[in-house]
Design a protein that fits this description.
The protein has about 400 residues and is an all-alpha fold. It folds into 2 domains: about 110 residues, no CATH class; about 190 residues, no CATH class. The protein is about 85% helix and about 0% strand. Helix 5 packs antiparallel against helix 6, helix 5 crosses helix 10 and helix 5 packs across helix 11.
Length: about 400
């Protein structure tokens, strides 16, 4: 082989080396780990931007989104009643009516108990609070703290004035929903309207939404969505049980210690327990405060011990055994979800954070583990069964119209 041929081969080999390619393609010179990190980075940035846009859109239409989410949670709670009627081949509309009446009666009963109990005892609580404050100021005067009653009273008046001046911002930031009575009424009506139709026609709405997916995505979307829905239903029903145990424990402690208004305290604990962490702390503080102004600091400390004991039982027994099994979300995930939800949407965000996280966890696990039958198309099966059912009803009505009355035979 001559020198020219060997020179041409060497030139081709040199041009194929990474050093030569790096002149025209800088990515070749980068380590593989850095290229993988860069690929992950821009994809995560795109996902983050999409998630931020979704959150921004939800916040903009929160007056509509929040009632619909509340209706979904309530329908998950009430659906077993409707399903029990369906299993017995009873009319579905009767099951829906029973579920709605049960819900309305339960809520109205709780509100009536709170209002009737507090209306008779609120004035006495106010007088006792004022007397307890005067006793505290008297004790401050005699204590060696270097403070006078006038200084403490002026400081508290300034705190109250500051809260009053910023009351609108505080409530709007805490609720992050609405501040007008008309919007509250509209949200309540939208919740009830959505709840009724979720109970009546929820399955049809679900398969209508699935119809927007490509055909090959019907099976995974159906399986993951149903698992997410089951997680939400389990969370709501277990949360009712946990809230009931909290209410019974703190209410029974208030009765034993002779704390006034035990029924309103228990009901407020029950309702507040649906807001993780924050609800239990605020309602427990109310029970301790009432014990303090009525029965003194020793009784209040014992009541505080009861509240802490009940919360510890919930956190270390009920949540891991009952809630952890039903929802399958790590306690750290619950804390982070509640904190993020409260930061984004206030109290509604804290309320919805855990069920949404549980649903998202079930959906992701289903998709990762591929827990669906790829040979099935649930949407096509549903529409086929629906057409068959409607055709059978049409034929039955046609036969009934053609059948002459018995008196004409």
């Amino acid at each position: 082989m001559d020198e020219a041929t060997r020179g041409g081969d060497n030139a081709q080999q040199t041009s194929g080396t990474p050093e030569a390619e790096s002149v025209t393609n800088a990515a070749v010179a980068l380590p593989l780990g850095m290229r993988i990190a860069a690929a992950w980075s821009w994809r995560l940035i795109v996902i983050g931007i999409a998630a931020a846009l979704l959150v921004w859109l939800v916040v903009q239409v929160r007056i509509i989104v929040i009632p619909v989410i509340v209706a979904l949670l309530l329908s998950a709670l009430l659906y077993p009643i409707v399903h029990a009627f369906e299993r017995r081949s009873w009319p579905r509309w009767l099951g829906v009516l029973t579920a709605l009446v049960t819900f309305v009666v339960a809520v109205a009963g709780l509100i009536w108990l709170i209002v009737s109990q507090l209306r008779s005892g609120f004035g006495d609580v106010a007088r006792r609070t004022e007397q307890a404050w005067r006793d505290f100021l008297t004790w401050i005067e005699s204590a060696p703290f270097g403070l006078s009653a006038e200084q403490v009273d002026a400081f508290m008046n300034q705190v109250v004035k500051t809260i009053d001046d910023h009351q609108g911002q505080i409530w709007s930031g805490a609720l992050a929903v609405t501040t007008t009575f008309g919007q509250v009424v509209a949200g309540a009506l939208l919740t009830m309207f959505s709840l009724i139709f979720f109970l009546i026609d929820g399955k049809r709405i679900w398969f209508w939404l699935l119809g927007f997916f490509p055909q090959r995505a019907h099976a995974p979307a159906y399986a993951s969505g149903m698992n997410g829905w089951n997680s939400v239903g389990q969370y709501v029903r277990v949360q009712v049980l946990v809230a009931f145990i909290d209410a019974v424990g703190i209410g029974l402690g208030a009765v034993i210690l002779g704390v006034p208004l035990p029924i309103p305290i228990a009901i407020l604990v029950f309702m507040g327990s649906f807001i993780p962490f924050l609800g239990a702390i605020s309602t427990g503080a109310l029970a301790v405060f009432i014990a303090l102004v009525y029965n003194g600091p020793i009784n209040a400390l014992i009541m505080l011990g009861v509240v802490i004991l009940v919360n510890q039982i919930e956190g270390h027994v009920l949540q891991p055994l009952v809630m952890g099994t039903a929802v399958k979300v790590h306690p750290l995930g619950v804390v982070l979800a509640v904190s993020t939800g409260a930061l984004i949407a206030g109290i509604p965000g804290a309320l919805f954070a855990v069920p949404l996280t549980a649903a998202a966890s079930s959906i992701v696990n289903t998709l990762v583990e591929r827990r669906w039958d790829p040979n099935r198309d649930p949407v096509a099966e549903y529409h086929h069964a629906d057409r068959t059912h409607r055709e059978a009803k049409r034929r039955a009505k046609s036969i009934l119209r053609r059948t002459p009355p018995k008196g004409n035979e």
